[in-house]
Amino acid sequence: MSKQLTIKVTILFLSIFSMQVMAKTTLVLWHSWVENKALWQTIQQEFNVEHKDIELKIQAFNHEEMKEAVIKSGFQRKSADILMMPSDWLGYHNVMHFSAIPKAILNPFIDPDIIEQTIFEDQVRGIPLFRGNHLLFMYNKSLVEKPASTWLELGEINRQWQNRNIKTLAVNYNEMFWFVPFMTLFGGFPVEQDKITLSNKATIDALKFYKQLTLNNVIDEKCTYQCVSTDFYQGKFAYSIGGSWAYKSAKLALGDNLGLANFPTMDGKEFKPMRGNLILAFPKNTFHGMKQDSLMEFSRFIQQEKYQQLMFDEMGLFPVNTKVMEKIKQHANDDFSFSIKQFQQSKSLPASTSIAAVWNGMYKGFALYMKDEVSAEEAVVYMQKSVERKQAILNRKLN
Q1: DSSP single-letter state for residue 304
Q2: Separation of alpha carbons 210 and 241, rounded Å
């Protein structure tokens, strides 16, 4: 072969290779399940191997950063193509413009009730992957012989932990997803039929109780998500209010020393965490844009029974595929059965602007009270007005 021919063949090969590389469609997925990076790496690798013309890239955020990143991306040119998120975040539709999902792309074995919970503005706007996004009352059996059954009992045994340089209860202190269940001890909840219900005695009592727990060193105001995860796993806390999505990580870290118990009651009243579904959503109407075919490929891929089972095995969350769920129930252990019971007792979060406004609007009033800058009575008025303003903005943008 002549030198000139060799050069031409090389150029032709490089041109073909370059065209193949350029032809690849890149999909960017964001999630906040940093405990399960290995799971998402497996999904990424297997998808990319099967789809030579598509490259899936995955970015993980911590829980505090994810929501902020999602909202900010709504005002920026670049954002994720796919969001793995709680279904109640669909309330940010006015900012994110989540794609309407054709029902034909949904796996036929998804529970219809779950599909109903992803409807916003009369359209299905997310692909349900699994449910069980609720909180669990965890404890370390090497530290706790019998878990406390009341908040009074938890406060009374607090000193024994302090003497051993162990903290009592880990919470994600400033996250409203952790605070709101304390309102249920007093018969309160932030919304009712899409109306904000914060300026009342129940919220006042919950704020005061939360602050008293802080002053009594039952909970720590400096706690972030690290407390309910890493610090609890390392034995720095006797108890943790942790996410069901982190159960497998907790079990891996503590083994047989991980215990699950009913949340403490107060005067017979139950502590009720919230629950929702975890969905795939497509911001900025990406599902109907230039990447539609690639997004449909990924949507079909991730809904396979294989990955429903894998997500349960790695994360401990409940598959939305009824066939897979029935198989799991046949071999359920005590912890799984307990988590199912807690899920059923939790309060369902609607996909609404009211809930979206709550997450954005409650914190400042909460923080002002915890810093002694306003009274509890003033804080709830502030919270009510702040959340109502934010909901009005969301509703106005939707019209």
Answers
A1: S
A2: 14
**8 Å CB contact between 100 and 253:** no
Residue appearing with tokens 């089972």: 309
Domain boundaries, the chain: 3-132+276-347, 135-275+349-398
Residues 187-200 have pLDDT tens digits of 999 999 889 999 99
Topology adopted by domain 135-275+349-398: D-Maltodextrin-Binding Protein; domain 2 (3.40.190)
Q: How far apart are CA 209 and CA 205, in angstroms?
A: 6
Per CATH, 3-132+276-347 and 135-275+349-398 having the same topology is answered yes
Identify the burial level of 385 via C-beta atoms within 10 angstroms of its C-beta, where 0-12 means exposed, 13-18 middle and 19 or more buried.
middle
Structure tokens at 89: 């975040």
Q: Kindly give, in sequence order, each residue whose CB lies less than 8 Å from that of residue 224, ignoring residues fewer than 6 positions away.
A: 64, 172, 173, 174
Condensed to tens digits (0 to 9), the pLDDT of residues 237-292 reads 999 999 998 898 999 999 999 999 999 999 999 999 999 899 999 999 999 999 99
Q: What's the residue count for the chain?
A: 399
Q: Which pLDDT band holds residue 398 (cuts at 50, 70, 90)? A: very low
Give ∠ CA 246-248-252 in degrees, rounded to 5: 120
- The fraction of the chain above a pLDDT of 90, given in percent, is 68
What is the pTM assigned to this prediction? 0.85
263 and 273 in contact (C-beta within 8 Å)?
A: yes
